[in-house]
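Structure request: Glycosyl hydrolase, Paenibacillus baimaensis.
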Amino acid sequence: MDTVKNDNLNRDDHKRWIPDTLMLEERARAAINAMVGMADSDHNYIPFFGADLMNKPSKMSHGDWDYGSSHGRMIDGLILARHMSGETFGAEVEARYRDNLLSFFKEDGMSYRQINPTRNWEPNANLIDQRAVILSLTTWFMETGDVAVKEAADRHVAALKRIAIKERDVWYYPASEYKETGWPSANGIQLRLAPDPAAFCGRLVMPLLKYHELTGNQDAFDLCQFFTALIIERSGVFNQDGSFNDSLAYRSGHFHTRIGTLDAIARFGAFTGDAAMISWVKKCYDWALTKSTAFGWTPGDLHEQAYEHETCSLVDLIATGITLAKSGYVEYWGVVERFLRNHLAESQLLDLDWVEDSDDQSNDIHAHTTYFQVGKRTRGAFAGYSAPNDFVCDVNEGRGHTSDLQICCLGSGTRGLFMGWSNSVTEKNGTVSINFLLNRGSKWLDVSSYLPHEGKVVIDVHMDIPRLLIRIPEWAGFTKIRFTRSLDGVETEGKGNEESRWVNKHFLVLGPAAAGETITVTFPLSYRRTLENAVGQTFETQWRGDDVVGITPQGTKKPLYSGRKVYNEAPMREGDYRRLDNEFVW
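Returned structure:
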């Protein structure tokens, strides 16, 4: 490996130097640029849905997801990204998104798609959209406590309950779209069709449960309980061995909606203390991992879209893994950190050298397509469909090249950053736990991560902590782990092979920590190669710790994992971490 010279040793004592390594809050700041930039100011600030970056010049287009789904995801993403970063840019656009979202509601409490001026779409309340709607209202209410937002959310939840078809032990929706006149087909209800229960019912449980936690709304809890029973007991979405039902009626085993449903049910199991439910989720999650790569690429489904990974699916894997880890399956902390460091980080559009931008608007189609500064406006977005080694999915199999960006993946990718950031350092009953070895500031302590350059983490403690734990990657072993503690000029040392130093398999017990103390933990890095299978294609992956630093074969459009630079000493930069007294818990 090349070595970078550290020139920061003679720094001004009034400046703080931190490792120049992955910082999720900065990635959130970049995502805000895209969430604001994808608004169509010539079309009532309705955001564009997708982008073709391979087009010459690149272009963005509207789609049928522009309304409740896109607005809901953008509002949720912007709130979370601002909470992480403190960035205020684009507040006026966000306000338009919020106004638009509320305007989509009709008197029945449902959120409706609007008539599009260039396409013959029929207004309807799409059931997939409703998940993003209640998600955004929940985050919005968490942020502001706005009574008007709660009233809108209460009406929305009541409507979701009212229109559900209720049987003895399960509830469901008999069609993908609801209309003001009711369900399109009474025969569909009688036949109990319940199309794609995971997409229309299962994924709704996640935001509904959070809304119940915040407000005590009983309708939300009832929906969670009966939708969960539908998925586990009656739907057939998941097979007995945990695999996804790949029949056409179940969207060919669509990964985003299936893993999103697992995220929702894991949360419900944790909330209700249902160990059997958590175990069921683990079985299905473990099967999903066998179809994914160790760095986080997932299939789109098991057939037609198998080669089209959605960032949405990866974020579902991240969220589900976190809930399982918090429920006692601590091995998933390491699994999730690999996802965060690798395919989530690589899937964010930061390098625009390969995108052809244009300042010309003469070929724009109002409310349909724009070619204007697409690269600049979408910087910070996340891949809509990516290959394991390429930002662009352009394979011979499946559907070939489709969309490079989708706004749903931008919202999900931002939420993935937030899930990693908010769970890096956690506290419960006086125990502070460092779960992800990522740069992170908090009111308790700051974590400075030198990975992947060095096996080193520095902890600066801000307040007295009764008990401090840090997760050590499984590949680091325990015999060569060292830590030093410095406080008021006194330094002590410890080792990972001392007795009674380990709990929950992977956590090193550091014990009580005092305000002003600095703790440095070091361990050997792992250098290894793995063969990763992605729908029949094999990739040789080179690892340095938990980071992929090379992949073969390389991508050809916008290669991933081919430009990562690592050094024997971590480069440093001037900066600091964001610390908050009160943080969202999602």
